[in-house]
Design goal:
Length: 80
Amino acid sequence: MSGWSSGRVERGPDRRFAADAEAHRRDAPRHCPRCGAPPALATEFWEGAARRFYCSCSACGWTGEITPTGDVAVGHEPEH
């Protein structure tokens, strides 16, 4: 059918969140703290002013939170 449109509008990234997206790409953990493999999941969330990443590693099964603190990271792991 000529001239038919699905009604879907293609949009680029929302510029309001560009700085947040850049900070996420910059600060997201790139390696599992237990085995060094790339994390399977790195979901960012906030607690007050603190940014945290909930991470999961499919290579060794580690899960935990990592908190960016500048040049170093502080994390915790549940007791085994």
